[in-house]
Design goal:
single chain; Growth Hormone, Chain: A; ATG22/LtaA_families; membrane
Length: 426
């Protein structure tokens, strides 16, 4: 593979920048900070958890509904970066503002968190769509994989710094409260995210677009309606989205419920944080490996490999008993988590018309967001019926089997077929 271009490197670095939000705000520090603030304000544990769940659902719904509409408008010349910038600024600003909200104002924390989440997810829609502008189809798998890999590595740096500050504050080694240590983590996240997005602003530009028309909003709705009406014309795209809906639901559920599952096994919060950190580190090189192997065996075949590994994860989870078992499970997840996400993004980018990438990535966003509903319900219902968390995780095997069966019906992009033929002749 030739050296990466300035545009490719700049695009990849946004994963490095934004992944700090994913681990510190979405996963680790903010949920604990919020729970503490709500408890101190007299909100019961059950209610505070429910309110956080409602908040995530609201943010998810907002983005899922806006994605295709804004994406369709952003396909016009000059609009993609404008929309990216708007959501990026929204996310960074409200992430930073979380540090200035009084710790007893739990409701205000949730409101600002919702706005930050909308900003983060919204920026990602247009960031993903920029993939078609920064590279060609032959390089998409590897560039997308490197983005995820760099994101895993980049997220660990501010995460480690934040956790060290919080631990030192808890032990009294530094003269600040744990509350302020958490707020410093929020500021670190916002600064990290903002600084490392500068290369994208300087070097990434919209190359594929639709020329502007009078009444852009009305014209965009007409184009969106036409796409839905002509769904047979994009049969491969929508079959892929259905397959993606199922298997990404299983992956997302395993990621989001892993902490609760580990707690049920009696694993301490400290050990869970360590496992989370190591998982991020291990996932980085495997994301790159998936990208390289996809160039030899095609992206679709590597998606099969990743889904099959997750099916094995579900089976192994059923027999899970010890902390060592949980470590093994986490490492198995790490081998395929980033690879599947990266290749799904690049595979989809190869299927869609480049000049309508934003519109289609809006649909990609919808299927990805609403996919986070079925899996948790399946796990919860199965666990309650059987009285066993292991059975709940095992039930996710259904989603992966459905996903891989539907994926088999998606035709290979022409570039994937050509690349595979060239590799066989070598």
């Amino acid at each position: 593979m030739k050296r990466m271009t300035k545009e490719e490197n700049s695009w990849i670095f946004y994963d490095w920048a934004s992944s700090a939000y994913s681990i510190i705000i979405s996963t680790a520090v903010f949920p604990i900070f919020y729970k503490s603030a709500a408890t101190n304000a007299g909100v019961s544990s059950a209610n505070s958890t429910a309110y956080l769940g409602y908040t995530i659902a609201i943010a998810t719904f907002i983005l899922a509904m806006l994605g295709p509409i804004l994406g369709t408008i952003a396909d016009y010349k000059g609009f993609k970066k404008r929309f990216f910038t708007f959501f990026f600024v929204l996310g960074v600003t409200f992430t930073g503002l979380l540090a200035f909200i009084p710790s007893d104002q739990w409701l205000l924390l949730l409101i600002f968190y919702t706005i930050a989440a909308v900003g983060s997810a919204g920026a990602n829609v247009f960031y993903d769509a920029f993939l078609v502008d920064v590279t060609n189809e032959e390089r998409m798998n590897r560039i997308s994989a490197r983005g995820f890999s760099l994101g895993y590595i980049g997220s660990t740096i501010p995460f480690i710094v934040s956790i060290v500050i919080i631990i030192l504050a808890q032990s009294g080694t530094i003269p600040i409260s744990t509350t302020w240590a958490s707020k410093i983590a929020f500021m670190i996240t916002a600064i990290w995210w903002a600084v490392f997005t500068i290369p994208l602003f300087k070097n990434v530009h919209q190359k594929y677009y639709i020329e502007r028309e009078p009444n852009l909003v009305a014209s965009s709705f007409k184009r969106l309606g036409k796409t839905l009406f002509e769904i047979r014309k994009y049969k491969a795209v929508f079959i892929f989205l259905i397959a993606y809906f199922f298997y990404i639901d299983g992956i997302g559920t395993i990621i989001t419920m892993s902490t609760a599952y580990g707690t049920d096994l009696g694993i301490s919060s400290t050990n869970l944080l360590i496992i989370l950190f190591v998982t991020q580190v291990v996932a980085a090189p495997f994301a790159i490996l998936y990208g390289r192997l996809s160039e030899r065996f095609t992206g679709k075949k590597m998606l099969y490999v990743g889904i099959i590994i997750y099916i094995f994860v579900c089976i192994y989870a059923y027999f899970l008993k010890t902390t060592l078992d949980f470590w093994i499970l986490a490492m198995l997840v790490a081998t395929s988590q980033g690879g599947i996400q990266a290749l799904s993004r690049s595979y989809f980018a190869k299927l869609v018309p480049k000049e309508k990438a934003n519109e289609f990535f809006g649909f990609y966003n919808i299927f990805g967001k609403f996919a986070s509903i079925m899996g948790p319900l399946l796990v919860g219902a199965t666990a309650q019926l059987t009285g066993n968390s292991n059975s709940g995780v095992f039930s996710l095997i259904i989603l992966f089997i459905i996903g891989i069966v539907i994926l088999a019906r998606v035709p290979e992009p022409k570039t994937e077929v050509a690349a595979n033929a060239n590799n066989r002749s070598v």
